[in-house]
Every structure is written in C-alpha cells, then in structure tokens.
Design a protein that fits this description.
Chain A: InterPro entries: Acyl-CoA_Oxase/DH_mid-dom, Acyl-CoA_Oxase/DH_mid-dom_sf, AcylCo_DH-like_C, AcylCo_DH/oxidase_C, AcylCoA_DH/ox_N, AcylCoA_DH/ox_N_sf, AcylCoA_DH/oxidase_NM_dom_sf, Mycobact_Acyl-CoA_DH. Chain A: Residues 44-126 form the Acyl-CoA dehydrogenase/oxidase N-terminal domain. The complex is a heterodimer of chains A (394) and B (375). With 394 residues, chain A is α+β, with helices and mostly antiparallel strands. Chain A has three domains: 3-106, Butyryl-Coa Dehydrogenase, subunit A, domain 1, CATH 1.10.540; 129-235, Butyryl-CoA Dehydrogenase, subunit A, domain 2, CATH 2.40.110; 240-389, Up-down Bundle (Butyryl-CoA Dehydrogenase, subunit A, domain 3). In chain A, 42% of the residues lie in helices and 14% in strands. In chain A, the strands form two sheets. Chain A has a four-stranded mixed sheet with strand order 1-4-5-8. In chain A, a hairpin with an 8-residue loop joins strand 6 and strand 7. In chain A, helix 4 packs antiparallel against helix 5, helix 4 runs antiparallel to helix 6 (237-253) and helix 7 (265-274) runs parallel beside helix 9. Chain B folds into three domains: 7-119, Acyl-CoA dehydrogenase/oxidase, N-terminal domain (Butyryl-Coa Dehydrogenase, subunit A, domain 1), CATH 1.10.540; 123-223, Butyryl-CoA Dehydrogenase, subunit A, domain 2 (Beta Barrel), CATH 2.40.110.10; 228-372, Butyryl-CoA Dehydrogenase, subunit A, domain 3 (Up-down Bundle). Chain B has helices at 7-23, 26-34, 43-51, 70-82, 89-100, 105-115, 227-260, 274-302, 308-334, 345-357, 362-372, and strands spanning 120-123, 137-141, 144-155, 162-168, 179-185, 191-197, 203-215, 219-220, 264-265, 268-269. In chain B, the strands form three sheets. A four-stranded mixed sheet of chain B has the order 1-4-5-8, with helices on one face. A four-stranded antiparallel sheet of chain B has the order 2-3-7-6, with no helix packed on it. A two-stranded antiparallel sheet of chain B has the order 9-10. In chain B, a hairpin with a 5-residue loop joins strand 6 (191-197) and strand 7. In chain B, helix 1 (7-23) runs parallel beside helix 4, helix 4 (70-82) packs across helix 7 (227-260) and helix 5 packs antiparallel against helix 7 (227-260). At the A-B interface, helix 7, helix 8, helix 9 and helix 11 of A face helix 8, helix 9 and helix 11 of B.
Chain lengths: 394, 375
Amino acid sequence: MTDLDTFRTETRAWLEANCPLEMREPVRTEKDTVWGGRDQSYMTPAQKQWMDAMASRGWTVPDWPKEYGGGGLSAAETKVLREEMARIRARNPLNSFGISMLGPALLKYGSEEQKLEHLPKIARGEIRWCQGYSEPNAGSDLASLATSAEDKGDHFLVNGQKVWTSYADKADWIFCLVRTDRTNKHNGISFVLFDMATPGVSTKPILLISGYSPFCETFFDNVKVPKENLVGELNKGWDVAKYLLGHEREMISGMGLGGTGGKNPLVVGALATIGVDHDGKLADPLLRAQIALFEVRAKAFAAQSERFIDELKAGRAHPAQPSMMKYYGTELNKARYELVMAAGGSDELEWESEASNGGREARAWLRTKANSIEGGTSEVQLNIIAKRILELPS
Amino acid sequence: MPLYLNDEQTMLRDTARDFVAEHAPPSHMRSLRDANDATGFSRDLWKQFAEMGFTGILIGENAGGLGLGHVEAGVVLEEIGRNLSPSPFLSTAVAAVEALKGSAQAERWFPGILAGDTVAALAIDEGAKHRPSVSMTAERAGNGFRLTGKKQFVTHGHVADLLIVAARTAGSADDEEGVTLFAVPKDAAGLTATPERLADSSLAARIALDGVEVDADAVIGDVDAGRDPLNRLLRAGRTGAAAEMLGVGGGAMDMTVGYLKERKQFGTLIGSFQALQHRAAHLYSEMEVARAAVLKAQQLLDAGDERADQAVSVAKAMTGLATTLAVQEGVQMHGGIGMTDEYDIGFYMKRGRVLAEMFGDANFHADLLAKAAGY
C-alpha cells in the first residue's frame, strides 16, 4: 500500500467514527450551516461535535500549515479527505469567509504575527469575518473606492461606507479595502483588518427580493484601526484584494456544483410534481430534455471543478482561471434554479406556507440571481478572461 | 489521480502535436479533397502512425503494443482533430482494438494494425441517427452464420480490411439481449460497400450484407452476448470522438482568437470590441469545461471505474455542445472570409458536425444520462 492508500484507510475509519450520522444529511436550510464566530449558536449538539472533531485535527482547513491551526496535509491528501467526506456525504463542518477568502490572503501577504493571531481562530471557528470591498460608487469598478484611512501616527482613522457586506451584522471582524492615497487609483489602496465592535462601526441590513437580508450597508465614522492591522505594504492593498478575489470567485463558483453525491434534488423535485409516463420518463418531455441537457453541463462542470482544484494545487492553473470558474458556475446555478422553479410549478411559488418550507426554493431561486453580480459580475469575469487568458487587445 | 496530464502524457502530446502538425496539417486534408481521393486518407500516413507507435497505444505490451490507455489515445486524437487529419486511427486503433481485445480475433488482426497495414471500420448504425437497436440478422448456417441487412455511416467501410458488425442472433430489434458482434473480412461474398462523400469530405460507406457467410470463429466474444464487446467499442469510440472534437473545437477557437488579434475594422483591431471579447471568453469557458469532461471520462475508463459510462456520455455530449459553439462562433467572427472555401475555418465546422453525430449526439447522450438517473 502506498502512503496515500494508508492515509485513505485511516481517514475513512476516522470519519466513520467521528462524523455524526446527522451530519451526513443534506443541508436543508441556512441554519444547517455552521459559520462560527463569537455568536455562533449550534442548532444541534451534533453540529458542535462535528466541528470540534474536525478542528481538533486541523481539518476545517486541511491544507493550511499546522502552526496556524491547519491539518498540514498535502494536495493529494486533501483531495483524499474531500473524497472520503463526499463518500459518506459529510457536511462541511465550518463555512466561513475566513477560510475561503481571508485565510489564503493572510498566508500569502500577512506578517508572522498576523498569521499566528488570526489563522488559528479562523480554523477553530472562533472569529467570523466579513469583507469590506464594494461601495455605493465602487461596484464593478472596485478600485475607485473612496473609504478613507488617514494616517494618525499609531493608527489609521477610517471614514466612509461599504455596501453588499455579506453578514456584516453577524461578523466579528472585517477585512477592508481603504484609500490611503487619493492621487493614485490602484496604488492608493490598502488592506486593513479591524474588530466590528470598534466604536464608530455600524451596520444596516438590506432587504433583498428573496425576503432575506444577507447583505448590509456598513458605515465607518472615525474608526480607529491600529497600524499593525495593515496587511502587506501601505498602498499595495490592491494586490492583496485581487489575490483574495480569486479565492472568493473559486468559492462562489462552487455553487454551480449544486449538491454533490446522492439524489439530485432538481430531478427528485420534478418527479414528485410531474410524475412519469409509461416508459418511466418524466411526463413533461420538453422539461425533461431541458433538465437532461442542463445536467450534461452540470456534470461536466463538476469535472472542471476537480480539474481546476488539481491544477491550482499543483501551481498549473492560469491566474485568471478563477474568473472562468466563477462565470460558469454562477450562470449554471441560475439556470439550475430556473429549472427548479419550472419543475415545481405553483407549489414552489408559495412564499410562506409550511408545504413550501417558507418558500425555500423560491427564495433560493431569487438568491442565485446575485451569484453573477457579487464578487465581480459575469461581464467583469468575461472581460478578465478576454484580456488575461485570451490576451485580446484593449 | 489528478485531473491533468502527467509528465509522460505531456511528452506524448508534444510528440503527437509536432508529428501531426508536420505530416497531416489542414492543407493535407485539403489536398486529398482537391484530388478527389478515393481512399479517404493517406496509407503512407497510416504507416507513419504505426512507426510512431500510435496504432499500438491501446494494444497490450504482450501483444506488441504500448499498453497505454484512453488518455494517451485521446492525446493523439486531439491533434488529429486540431489538424483535421483524415485517419483511420479512431475506428481502427481505438474502437476496433477495444472490441477485439481479449477475443480470439485479436491475434489475427492486431499485428496488421500494429504495422499500419490494417484498417478496421465499424458497421453499427442502421439508421440516420445512432440508436441502440440492432436489426441486421445473423442466422446460424453450417459451421457459422449468415448475415443479412444494412448499415450506414461506416467510416472507411469501402477500404477497410475488417468490418466490426453488430447483428442479431436472437430476439427483436430493440432487445438488449441477442446481439452478437462479428469480425467480417472485406472480401466476404455478398458484402457491398458503397462509399459516400460526407460534408467534411470524409468517406463513409453504406454497407449491404446479403447473406454473407462467416465462420463461427468470426464471433467476437460470445454468441448473443455481443453487447459486452459492443459497449467496449462504443465507450472507446465515444470517448475518442470527444477527444477529437476537443481538437476541432480548440483548433477553431485558436484560429478565431488569432483572427481577432489581426483583423482591423473601424481603424482598430476587432478583438478590442467587447461584444466579440465576451463571446470569445464564453467560448473559452465552454471548451475548458468540455476538456475536463473528456479527461475525466478517459481516466475513469482507464481505471475500469463503474462511473465511466456516465462520464463517457457527459464527455461526448459536452464536447458536442462546446464544439458546435466553437465552429459557429469561428465562422461568424471571421465574417465573410469564414464562408469561403479558401479559408480553413469552414472545414472545422464540417468536421465538428460529423463528429457530433458519430456514436450518438448530445441529445442521445443526455437522454441516456436521464434514463440512468431515473427520469
């Protein structure tokens, strides 16, 4: 047996022993997802047990170094762990922007003190992070951001407003882009970290078409940020921001995968509503054809996601490839939910009923429409692919 | 196993890329077409394929081949696709070899395939659309069988030394059971092959078998159990056609992106127009996703994984969709010259159409996947 085979055998046994059966059920609502943070309340003891078990091995962030709370696994071992988790349909023990976005940026650009201070708390789910990027006048043109950070000797004084800050009202800390030089657009931006409990920080949730408020407006009124919370060099925050955006796009592209393993919820839903004909085929042949052709792309994209991760870990992926993943994955997810709604008919239009689980699919359908806007619109991603991968002229 | 080519596979790709581009570029296909070539490919080139070892990629080392897999065969097929090279590689060295593997017929035909002397053709389709049903009959006669019926879309069928023929030894056309696969030599009495020129200038035969008698040892595998070798043939053929389509679609895309960087209108390069940039970037995305689907299918086939069937259908359907987009965008973005015979982009459109149809189109495979998923 190779070392990897041994690792697989041991991992399989460990997961079997430590993943509660309840944590192998599909995620049904937002409350089934553990985000961590000071205010984390667990829906069930199994959620906490599973999170703690994984965190104790560093497996909430398996490929981070052990000294920062990670599992220290190689790319191949990480892939084995993911495969073994998928095999028993284990839930992700901890989701967070700390893991998917800030962590990779700190590993690359953070000081040793910053890594030791922040990464273990992310790995253990103790601190929940939000992202202060977009502003009312800086959306697709993110580098035109105006939130200012004035040098006051030992600290920056931050003033301004962010928008579309995901879960700002639930987050403990923020990683934030601020302007430290007004004379230079891209080279006048810095990347800072601060506690959302700092005086002068306030948030206001934004009600969306889904009826939910996952995003906030975030206001900074004379917020004092210690100088040691600057990540990377002063005025070089755009490099950190771009690097982090690549990871954000990877994360959002994952939504195109839908549920992995197990029964396909789109198909299960369509069969339940529409039934089958005498040949055992979905009784609406045109919808069946649409679903079947959609599934070709969805399954091919699952392969592409695997390939992308493999190439990324081996340092073989084009640096702009996350833009392709983000573009394709989000457009796919929107298409999936159009089919979910078509399959569900008027049942899925109910917004509040018990049968519709409080309009779960309808709200999820509307939520997907933000996928191709947040983290850089589909059109921005296409611009990036055209310029950086295809090298088309300006 | 990571989902990218390993070092050996990358070396093979580089070798194949250089070799095919040098010996069989699009101009090679064009000159065969212009000469109204009656064979459909160059026999010299087929010999060279053998000398390079390509024809033995899927043949085991104990039988004198390279003992490699579908990833490696696909690497060669992608270059064939990119160069639009007419070649019996897919039907002979990939699909027929997989069908014959492990049967008594392998010993008879593999040496010729390894030497680049033998060409095989696949007599599977009976109607204009690829379907699983088999109507051609094979009645027991003396020591063997008598085959009667018609086949079509048999690429290289008019010059092949060997025809792999699916016929029915029991049951009726749509039955899963009762199919037998035969290796029929070209000189069999009662066999007529009528070559038809297709849109892409390739030659595919309509085959008529009028009481063709073969010995019992012409059976590949077991009588009434021909679905096993037939499915091996189809898995290999579909995956191979998908790999060739990656080359066709990729070649069309590269040509088109290149054109966007040199063609000027309104005093500027047309590649600077966002309307075209977005279409090109979308096409790139579709082709990347198709590439992943193909490599996944090849790896699962090589690993003998039970999920291979599904992955093969995904690969064939996805490359059909992506390549169809690539060739259409190619002609459109080339504008008027894209419609001229003088320019190669139209050849990519024609070849893409033929491969999209071969061994089942995107709709056929989407339907297979839906059935397998219980809807």
